[in-house]
Design goal:
Layout: H1 2-10, H2 14-40, H3 61-81, H4 84-104, H5 107-126, H6 133-150, H7 169-182, H8 193-200, H9 221-251, H10 262-283, H11 288-304, H12 322-362, H13 366-379, H14 384-402, H15 409-433, H16 438-449, H17 458-472, H18 477-497, H19 500-520, H20 525-537, H21 541-554, H22 559-571, H23 575-588, H24 593-605, H25 609-622, H26 627-637
């Protein structure tokens, strides 16, 4: 909106508006060239985030497509009305825009182009302009847009285009309708679509590969305006667009008897840009780039038909009372702006250090990551994502602290306790800052669940956190499965205390939660696995095998699942099936020592001593300080049984598990 007023006030001459429009188109030309290079795999920027085909300087490729669809009629229209050097500049710009639109081939971009080209057909037909080039060009653009909307699948693209996924218009409408019913007047607030989506999404989405995807915006800016802004926000946006249409109808109709000059016809071209951008608001997600183009073109459009300029003269003579007010206003603005600038610098510094922390985390430098993110939190303590990730980084530090050899075990335990306390505090602060964000409760529940046993009442705190997450994302099977896992741990604790009746109740509760998760998503492998765990506690071996086999159908590449199924077969003395599963686990993860351990025992049992020795030699490389492995190798090399003189221990459970994106 500020941009609109700046354009209207500062650009007084039509020639100035031409240059403004030229630089808008030229900037589109630059990012179009960069977009083509990115799609080709020629990355011209040195930054890590830019070295992927989905990066463009104005957002995702689909954002770029809509932006260029708004600009294309403007560029080709100017190419038709200008002469000499300028004519060819705009033809080249329009050609590049069109090539990139063909390469991306995103249907909302063709709808935007159709809106702009239809406006150009209408305007060029009702206004007299020398030559029919613009009218013919508008018809060609209209026909091309309709054709490409009908024929969605073009031949294989010369340029590979990255896949982008958005909610459908139907789904966006349903989500925003539910949000509007919750808060009909002012809506749920800006940027809250992902919260509404998690709360109101259809469970049928769980049957797709996007079941755990959280969309940050809907498919239409206009539809989203009603969900995030309520009736007031939605009506305000529609009122703005309606007012613009009224202005266009009022101002753009020029008498057919009057010949339109090139500069005046540029006014008609600006109208096509407005129609295209408005169409983009209806058929594509909201982007900053589209908003920028809309308000800049609107400012140019209004400035173009301004006939006079009203000026206000301020009396700044010493005798004037205003001469005293102006310095006061200046001082007041400085006083207000100084802390705002300081706050902006602090937030920028916080963001830089947070990104350093993320980079350190990805490199496995957990302590360094925690330090960077902690500094970011000190600079900007109101960011829940900083606090949430700091909590996880601190929680990951606990294991490192307990393994330190430069301090006593008691000191290490005290340090670990303090780190755990800080981790919980930061996760709780994140949830308190943004209680409607499901990922904050998810991380808090994850931390508490991993503290069940060492921490008193951790299971109850974990249940409370996951139940709040489930209330915000009721169609997500992950939270039901996590709640079921907590009930299993409560079952184990009560069983150890001898409270059999209470323990059985918790086990039944766990089974119910896992089945509810499968009702939401039939192929959810973690729930199938956990039902196998329940059956194992009840001693139902046949059901254990059946559940694990079902889970493996849905998660064929899960190494932990292959290992557990191999263990079950091993207990049942089904040696061949057990061997196949352990070999599968080793193939998926060659460094999986537990799987190699049992595979080596099975090879030894089958008399394949050399292969058994190879397995345990690899285990020794991975675990050089393991005395049991050394003894097994000694037995095998002496021709004895691998476990002679060794008591075999029960292997740990390695549950198949899927995590949402916030769990690092």
């Amino acid at each position: 909106v500020l941009l609109f007023f700046l354009v209207y006030q500062l650009f007084e001459e039509k020639e100035q508006l031409f240059w403004l429009l030229f630089f808008l188109l030229f900037s589109g030309f630059i990012v179009a060239i960069i977009g083509l290079l990115q799609l080709k795999g020629w990355f011209i920027f040195p930054f890590d985030f830019s070295r992927q085909s989905i990066f463009t300087p104005v957002g995702t490729p689909t954002s770029l497509a809509v932006f260029l669809a708004v600009l294309l009629p403007l560029a080709l229209g100017l190419a038709n009305i200008l002469r000499n050097f300028w004519k060819w500049i705009f033809w080249v710009m329009g050609g590049v825009f069109f090539v990139l639109l063909i390469a991306l081939n995103w249907w909302p971009a063709w709808v935007v182009l159709l809106g702009g080209s239809l406006a150009l057909v209408f305007l060029s037909s009702i206004n007299k302009y020398k030559g029919q080039g613009v009218f013919i060009l508008a018809l060609i653009l209209t026909s091309t847009s309709i054709l490409l909307l009908i024929v969605r699948d073009l031949p294989p693209n010369i340029l590979p285009t990255p896949l982008e996924v958005f909610p459908t218009h139907k789904l966006t409408f349903r989500i925003d309708k539910e949000a509007l019913m919750e808060r009909p007047i002012i809506g749920t607030g800006p940027g809250t679509f992902f919260i509404s989506y998690a709360k109101h999404k259809d469970p049928l989405v769980n049957q797709t590969i996007f079941w755990n995807t959280r969309f940050i915006s809907g498919s239409s800016k206009v539809i989203d305006a009603f969900g995030s802004g309520g009736v007031l926000g939605g009506v305000a946006l529609l009122g703005l667009l309606s007012t613009i249409l009224f202005l266009i109808w009022k101002k753009i109709r020029i008498s057919p008897s009057t010949e339109v000059s090139s500069f005046d016809f540029m006014h008609l071209l600006l109208t096509t840009g407005l129609i295209g951008a408005g169409t983009g608001f209806i058929f594509s997600p909201s982007t900053f780039t589209l908003d920028f183009a809309f308000w800049l073109i609107l400012g140019s459009f209004v400035a173009f038909w301004r006939t006079s300029k009203e000026e206000i003269s301020l009396d700044l003579t010493p005798e004037s009372s205003f001469s005293y007010v102006l310095p006061l206003l200046l001082v007041f603005s400085i006083v207000i702006s100084t802390p705002l600038i300081f706050l902006s610098l602090r937030r920028t510094l916080a963001e830089v250090n947070y990104l350093r922390g993320v980079k350190a985390w990805n490199e496995g430098k957990i302590k360094e990551a925690a330090d960077f993110i902690a500094y970011a939190v000190r600079q900007d303590p109101q960011r829940d994502d900083y606090l949430r990730d700091l909590a996880q980084a601190q929680f990951a530090l606990v294991q490192q602290e307990l393994q330190r050899t430069d301090i006593s075990s008691q000191q290490a335990l005290q340090n670990a306790t303090l780190i755990i306390s800080a981790s919980i505090d930061n996760a709780k602060r994140a949830a308190q800052l943004e209680p409607k964000k499901v990922n904050n409760w998810s991380v808090l529940g994850f931390i508490y669940r991993n503290l069940i046993g060492p921490m008193t009442n951790a299971e109850d705190f974990a249940l409370e956190s996951y139940n709040k997450a489930l209330a915000l994302d009721p169609a997500n099977p992950y939270f039901l499965t996590e709640i079921g896992r907590i009930y299993i741990q409560k079952y184990i604790l009560e069983n150890q205390k001898g409270n059999q009746e209470q323990a059985i109740e918790f086990l039944n509760n766990a089974e119910e939660k896992f089945k509810q998760a499968l009702d939401l998503k039939k192929d959810y492998a973690p729930a199938h696995f956990q039902l196998a765990v329940v059956a194992d506690f009840r001693g139902n071996t046949d059901e254990v095998v059946s559940r694990l086999q079902q889970a493996q159908i849905f998660a064929p590449t899960d190494v932990g699942l292959a290992f557990q199924l191999g263990v079950v077969y091993y207990r049942q003395q089904k040696w061949q099936q057990a061997q196949e599963q352990f070999e599968r686990a080793v193939a998926l993860n060659p460094d999986y020592s537990n799987a190699r351990y049992f595979l080596g025992l099975l090879y030894d049992r089958a008399g394949r001593k050399d292969e058994a020795i190879k397995q345990f030699e690899r285990i020794q490389e991975l675990n050089p300080d393991n005395e049991q492995v050394k003894l097994i190798l000694k037995n095998l090399r002496e021709g004895k049984s691998a476990l002679e003189g060794i008591v075999q221990q029960e292997p740990p459970r390695v549950p198949v598990e899927e995590k949402p994106e916030e769990i690092k």
